[in-house]
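does this look right to u?? zinc ion version
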Amino acid sequence: MRLERFTECARILDPRSGFSDGRHEIEVRIDPLTGATCRINITRTARPKHILRGAEEVVPSKCPFCPENLERETPKFTPDLIPEGRLKSGGAILFPNLFPLSDLHGVCAFTPAHKLDLDKFLKEEIYDGITCCRKFFEIVGGRGAPFHFLGWNHLSSSGASLLHPHFQVMASKRPLHGPKSCLEASERYWRGEGRSFWSDLISSERGSPRYIGETTGFLWFAPWAPTGAFEVMGVSGDAKASLLQLDGREIGGLSDGIVKILGGLWDLGATSVTMAIISWPSGEEADWFSMSVRLMVRPSGNISDRAFLELYGGEVGLTTLPEDYAKALRERF
Ligand SMILES: [Zn+2]
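got this back:
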């Protein structure tokens, strides 16, 4: 039996020590049977946390992601990677995660607002955020980290330690376990069926009871077997494999769809979401893959949605049929 592990090292200029060059070691361990992967950075216990308890809510003056504090309190990338230290695009700004889980782990603050309800996000803010993350993936893709992942936890019940809305980006020479399974399964389907799984999926879902709507370049629907509550998928309708292949119009369509879904989920009573973009690695072509975004609702109260079934059973317990909430979300499109 092989007990595999390897380390990654994130280099960031740390604001807590006058922007000196700091190194963070991340240990990545692989389960010998399943290949499931975990990432350990023991310094993450020191992360500041914004926990919502009404009056104790963290005020903007103490938030490192609020515009008046950001330049002073967030770290910078080393000049060999990003000469300016941080990347900007429109109103979005991307900087290293101070408590990284991979050698390239960034945070993108895309709105000046410290706290936003799901129905208050602007299409332009999401657009700037995604465009900024894409710029980062382009840079690191050319520097030996072609696999990229864009994630978003909104509010503490989704896993966000800070309240201020922010995307997270991870990039590496190796894919994360989840996206890797998805990329590999898509290739297997192509070899077995002679067609793209994603084209078949679009044909099957367009007009189905789970269909929600379309925006420029994207089709939105509730998946047949959701991996979380009220889960929604947006898939590239033009079979673009990677976020890096989208043009400005399509990033606009992606942002438009995300904002419509967030608003619709808010109407259904949701307050917290988790989102991820699954995208093909940079510099490679793949006729069998289309990029997608997935969003799920996270708990509003203090009961976790991740219990023994999800954590050890590897399956998800749900309470709502995708066909039912798709119908409600359709009204936003
Ligand atoms: Zn803030």
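Residues 248-267 form the longest helix (20 residues). idk if thats expected tbh
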